From TrEMBL:
Listed Gene3D superfamilies: HUPs (3.40.50.620)
Keyword field contains DNA repair: no
Name of the gene: cysH
Pfam name, any one: PAPS_reduct
Main location per the UniProt record: cytoplasm
Catalytic activity: [thioredoxin]-disulfide + sulfite + AMP + 2 H(+) = adenosine 5'-phosphosulfate + [thioredoxin]-dithiol
SUPFAM superfamilies: Adenine nucleotide alpha hydrolases-like
Stretches that traverse the bilayer: none
Record-given protein name: Adenosine 5'-phosphosulfate reductase
Length: 243
């Protein structure tokens, strides 16, 4: 996102004021209500379609009046390499919830990328593949908004252990809200069970962390849940949540 100096300063102030107002123990519902009250419909919710927990919480917590009666906008990064189950979950979420899906695609199809940069860039240079198919498209898609909401949780990985509830996203230049950041795995699962939330069928099939199909395998028994992502390499993040 390209912001002017004035916009950036204002958004930094909003993030700092929000974090101070709500404090470190704010609930997901409080964070989402604050987001809608602060930004109106000038924010978007990012969902990776591993489950619909964030969408479900948001649909219950956000007053339609706060977003001027418009549908919640949900962003999905369609990399061209997703499991069919992930795309099916995306379509099911759209059917279940009254939302506006923003399906974001890279500039090149996988075939075009293969032709331009060599076959299977995800294998030869996974960082560049993620940059082209995730980071660059997301940066463009976030440009119209002043804030984005993600489902990042601190327990997911050491790189996310200090994820704030509200911050200014240095990478994309807008306010970032992580309503579920403090949720434990038990709390997360309890919410799914209590509300009958849709979950990607791959989770029950042994994939606790789901990314693009060529770069995701089932973790070994007892291994870190994210060890199945970019298995065999030192890569642990795609670059979307660098701040």
């Amino acid at each position: 996102m390209t912001s002017t100096t004035t916009d950036t300063a204002e958004l930094r102030e909003i993030a700092e004021a929000g974090a101070q107002l709500l404090g470190p123990d704010a609930s997901a519902e409080e964070l989402l209500a604050w987001t809608a009250e602060t930004f109106g419909n000038d924010f978007i919710i990012a969902a990776n379609m591993q489950d619909a927990v964030l969408v479900d919480v948001a649909s219950k917590a956000i007053d339609p009046g706060a977003v001027h009666g418009e549908k919640l906008k949900v962003l999905f990064l369609d990399t061209g390499y997703h499991f069919v189950e992930t795309l099916g979950t995306r379509d099911a979420v759209v059917d279940i919830y009254d939302l506006d899906l923003v399906n974001v695609e890279p500039e090149q199809t996988p075939a075009q990328q293969d032709s331009a940069l060599g076959k299977d860039l995800f294998a030869t240079d996974p960082a560049e593949c993620c940059r082209l198919r995730k980071v660059v498209p997301l940066a463009s898609a976030l440009t119209p908004y002043r804030a984005w909401v993600t489902g990042v949780r601190r327990v997911e990985a050491p790189t996310r252990a200090n994820a704030p509830l509200i911050s200014f996203d240095e990478g994309f230049g807008l306010v970032k809200i992580n309503p579920l950041a403090a949720w434990s795995d038990e709390q997360f699962q309890n919410y799914i069970d209590a509300h009958g939330v849709l979950v990607n069928p791959l989770v029950d099939d042994g994939y606790p962390s789901i990314g693009c199909a060529p770069c995701t395998v089932k973790p070994a028994a007892g291994a870190d849940p994210r060890s199945g992502r970019w298995a065999g390499s030192a890569k642990t993040e795609c670059g979307l949540h660098a701040s």
